[in-house]
Design a protein that fits this description.
single chain; alpha/beta
Length: about 325
């Protein structure tokens, strides 16, 4: 502001009045100061503004890490923020291992009340957070809570995946599961079990392996399944990263997909369509989840009520090249 004032030949208080739209500045001075601001590329500090103003006009999206799921959610958040008058800040600590549980409390303490008017938490590990401002959770680990939430129908999505494989004639269907602390992973395993039971197929516990939504863990899990004396003819992976790791292991072992093995993932991240062969998967509307979470948060900041504080979006099957009939 001092630099702008010196360039424009006015006082710092005059620059402040122009920036904040206050009275007491002539039209000629306003135009002069504005021209200098534009020429210098000056932007007022969000933190400094927040010390003066109650409303920051900034929304935060807080993630544990920028992995495929959260990145797609962020794209939807960016879609929704347009035209609202708010700016968007994404915050991540880079997936530090010490932040694995309870990271949202630490993140919120850094940004809420000083930098943002409200926040979207993506896959929070806890939802009993109380901060000075509205918070919306996307795909919370603990399921529904007192916080407004947006999630997809994980249970039905898993059923769709396994029902599809059953319809192709598969009876030995393995699963590489997700993280046990996530409600979404729990529901996907439940859907797997329910679909098998509905088809009259008993669950063979030896065909389940923990993948933990971690590609390295998933590779070992897939290797164990595919090297069994009687391996599964199909694998349902709890997310696409796990499914892609399963395809890599199958290729290393010389197992033809989909000739000898069918694989179905969950998420429909962009990489799934680029796999060789392209991955059959369950699409959860990740971008829509981000979009709807921002819409809910903007309404809450404005003081508007929500018709539904817990939104569950539909999942659909996306058939591609990794599923085949049992020969």
């Amino acid at each position: 502001m001092q630099h702008v004032a010196a360039e424009a030949g006015v006082s710092v208080s005059t620059v402040s009045k122009v920036i904040n739209g206050r009275y007491g500045v002539s039209p000629e001075t306003f135009e002069n100061v504005t021209a200098v601001i534009n020429r210098l590329g000056y932007e007022p500090s969000l933190v400094a503004q927040s010390l003066r103003n109650t409303r920051k006009r900034v929304i935060g999206v807080l993630v544990a890490d920028f992995e495929p799921f959260s990145t797609e959610v962020l794209k939807g958040a960016a879609d929704a923020i347009r035209g609202t008058g708010f700016e968007l800040v994404a915050y991540s600590a880079g997936g530090r291992v010490d932040e694995h549980v309870g990271w949202e409390r630490r993140y919120l303490s850094r940004v809420m009340g000083t930098l943002v008017d409200g926040a979207v938490l993506v896959t929070p590990t806890v939802t009993d957070v109380q901060y000075d401002g509205p918070v919306v959770a996307v795909d919370p680990h603990t399921g529904r809570s007192s916080l407004p939430t947006v999630a997809s129908d994980n249970l039905q999505g898993a059923r769709l995946a396994v029902e599809h494989l059953v319809g192709l004639g598969h009876r030995r269907i393995g699963m590489v599961t997700g993280r046990p602390d996530l409600i979404s992973a729990e529901l996907r395993e439940q859907g797997y079990r329910e679909a098998l039971a509905a088809a009259g197929i008993g669950v063979d516990e030896s065909l389940l392996r923990l993948g933990a939504f971690d590609p390295d863990v998933a590779r070992e899990a897939a290797r164990e399944l595919l090297t069994l004396p009687e391996p599964p003819t199909a694998v349902f992976a709890a997310n696409d990263s796990t499914a892609l790791a399963t395809l890599e292991v199958a290729a290393e072992l010389g197992i033809d997909v989909p000739g000898r093995l069918s694989v179905v993932g969950f998420d429909n991240i962009p990489e799934s369509a680029l796999a060789v062969p392209p991955l059959t998967t369950v699409q959860q509307p990740m971008r829509q989840m981000g979009h709807d979470a921002i819409a809910m948060l903007v309404a809450l900041i404005a003081g508007d009520g929500l018709e539904d504080t817990h939104v569950t979006l539909e999942t659909t099957l996306v058939p591609r090249g990794t599923r085949g009939y049992v020969s």
